[in-house]
Q: What sequence folds into this?
């Protein structure tokens, strides 16, 4: 557990320092843990666990947009679990259930216990359709077609800076829309 | 968009980094302050005998109390803007203005007074105090909430209440230079009621605005 936390903290420090590959690896690594916790939270609230992917994506977006609130000298796991817990409570509350989320839901996840992604997530995909065309195109190009920022810029004859701005705005408004719903 | 695709998108956006919450809060407060200052100078203004009053320790004490409130509330606000933070270990900061005020009341009790205690407590400006502090707080509160939206507080209502305290502390600092009631008893009564009102507004607004 300690080793895992140190690995996460190290990856996040590299990410903050500008290493996008480390950031990608960190998000990939934490996702199964978040997924397991979301499923357990849903199950305990008597909710179908196939909604867990929406919650996972919600958590990932919040982690991304709020990562400047992480103190680089602090361990990463408590920060991550605080966000995850908050998002899980939010999701359960929106589903109108009595809430009982244990912080241990996150901390106790054992390695190897990593359920696969279940039903295709709908909320982010649905909200994506409501974004302004430019933001949607840029997001889709990078997410679905796995194009780089450079390729996306060439494809839409935009500058790379404009792609970056559209990408970030897209993610911000996506998150805002998810919160409203 | 499946989760792997989302992760790829987030990693592509790694170059974009949010500003620290403290910076956002500072900018927002600097933008809001002129509005409150304008309200102060058009409606209230400094008390005419301010140069004489500055030699009265109880006049100065008012600023120690209100600034201690504002500064400690700013520190607690910034702390609470981190998702894993709680009041524990930080909440005691908010006792600083209470301590200063209590010491002031004690000090005043030990001095000979011209006016009876109740007269000093009730004062002459209680109604102005109760309206001016909350009204001048509102622009600052709006700015503080806007700045704190860059954070990720786990308890948005609590964070909003603390934002209310910081706005009330700053507004009360302005008001204190207008008010001719300098007794710590007056401050402990009316400033406190006004501050509690702003904290309540902050809690209600924060519960909506500071969710992330």
A:
């Amino acid at each position: 557990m300690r080793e895992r936390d140190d690995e996460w903290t190290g990856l996040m420090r590299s990410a903050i320092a500008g290493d996008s590959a480390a950031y990608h690896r960190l998000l990939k690594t934490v996702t199964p843990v978040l997924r397991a916790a979301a499923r357990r939270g849903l199950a305990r609230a008597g909710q179908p666990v196939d909604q867990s992917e929406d919650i996972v994506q919600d958590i990932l977006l919040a982690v991304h947009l709020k990562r400047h609130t992480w103190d680089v000298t602090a361990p990463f796991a408590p920060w991550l679990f605080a966000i995850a817990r908050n998002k899980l409570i939010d999701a359960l509350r929106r589903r109108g259930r009595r809430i009982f989320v244990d912080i241990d839901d996150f901390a106790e996840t054992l390695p190897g216990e990593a359920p696969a992604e279940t039903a295709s997530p709908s909320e982010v995909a649905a909200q994506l359709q409501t974004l302004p065309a430019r933001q949607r195109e840029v997001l889709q190009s990078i997410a679905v077609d796995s194009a780089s920022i450079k390729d996306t810029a060439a494809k839409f004859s935009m500058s790379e800076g404009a792609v970056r701005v559209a990408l970030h705005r897209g993610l911000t408004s996506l998150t805002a829309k998810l919160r409203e719903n | 968009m499946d989760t792997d695709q989302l992760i790829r998108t987030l990693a592509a956006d790694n170059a974009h980094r949010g500003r620290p919450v403290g910076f956002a809060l500072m900018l927002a407060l600097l933008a809001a302050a002129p509005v409150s200052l304008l309200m102060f100078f058009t409606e209230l203004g400094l008390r005419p005998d301010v140069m004489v009053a500055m030699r009265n320790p109880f006049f100065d004490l008012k600023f120690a109390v209100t600034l201690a409130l504002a500064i400690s509330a700013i520190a607690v606000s910034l702390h609470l803007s981190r998702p894993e933070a709680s009041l524990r270990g930080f909440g005691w900061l908010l006792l600083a203005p209470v301590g200063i005020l209590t010491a002031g009341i004690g000090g005043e009790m030990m001095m000979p007074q011209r006016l009876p205690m109740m007269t000093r407590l009730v004062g002459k400006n209680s109604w102005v105090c109760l309206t001016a502090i909350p009204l001048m707080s509102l622009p600052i509160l709006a700015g503080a909430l806007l700045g704190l939206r860059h954070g990720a507080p786990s308890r948005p209502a609590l964070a909003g209440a603390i934002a209310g305290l910081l706005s009330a502390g700053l507004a009360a600092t302005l008001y204190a230079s207008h008010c001719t009631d300098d007794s710590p008893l007056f401050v402990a009564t009316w400033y406190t009621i006004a501050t509690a009102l702003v904290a309540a507004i902050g809690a209600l607004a924060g519960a909506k605005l500071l969710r992330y």
